[in-house]
Amino acid sequence: MPVYNKLVRDKIPQVIEKAGKTFTTRTLSDEEYRQELRKKAFEELEEYVRAEDDAAAIEELADLLEIIHALAECHSATIEQIEAVRASKAEKRGGFKEKIFLIEVHDE
């Protein structure tokens, strides 16, 4: 019997049930939920880093985006508010489109 002890998507219990299996779950407290979302973000990021092609990378990016949506809600923010902060930072400091790799800064 595999033990997972991890946050899963809302419909995973239904998927398990349809497969004819039984399972055990519990509902997390708000603090536990936030902690588990953070763990899940690292898990999904690792899966993205290990993706071997564009299709797999896109799947993992979609999972990361789902986690970002959930985390935004945990912090009482909307994805639109997060996007506004991102846009503001991009306006002030730029994005990453120019592929600039900083080697060093010389003190003069």
Automatic annotation (TrEMBL):
InterPro entries: MSMEG_1276-like_NTP-PPase_dom. CDD domains: NTP-PPase_COG4997. It comes from the Bacteria. This is Phosphoribosyl-ATP pyrophosphohydrolase. The lineage of its organism: Bacteria, Bacillati, Bacillota, Bacilli, Bacillales.
